[in-house]
Amino acid sequence: MTAVVSDAVAASAATDRLKLTEVFLSLQGEARDAGWPTVFIRLTGCPLRCTYCDTAYAFHGGDWWSIDDILAEVAKHGVRHVCVTGGEPLAQKRCIGLLQRLCDAGYAVSLETSGAIDIAAVDPRVSRVLDIKTPGSNEAHRNLWDNLGLLTAHDQIKLVICSRADYDWARALVLEKGLHQLCDVLFSPSKSEIAARDLADWIIADRLPVKFQMQLHKLLWNDEPGR
User: Is CATH 3.20.20.70 correct for 16-221?
Assistant: First the structure.
């Protein structure tokens, strides 16, 4: 009987684990919560290969953590904001349970997701920061457009702009689909491809109803991992 119970406990623990690349405290560098001290939970793995990806180190490797251990680690840092990111966190199905547990624990939780995976099961208390991939990412064909119908004012849409052609594509998308009426829409310049000032000027010239943003953590710490 003892062996049977032990096996059951081990099986339960195995189904409660996620593969993580890192957990760290920094400032949120993007989106609505930019500037807040935030614990980042970076899950390992991503099915996309965007041209501008700056976290390719999270594609492989990582360590298995139980959800209980993740929450204990988050609690050590003593801040309210938690961001679950990747990689693509929703590529691990147990991410849904982690998000719920974080919300239950009273954290202000955001999820950074590629927009290529169904977000319907994500706890509504989570602010879903949904990427829409532009043509310049080479992954625009992966956009799951049904996700747009699931967004609320609590969520956010992010587009990384790689060129003037990307901007024109994104501008048309915002206006044709009324994205700004769904939630905040954020435009970011791809660091290595266009000047931030150019993107800012284009947005101003068009009076486009989107927020310009730059990656605050990159300005402060460049590409240092864990910051």
Answer: yes
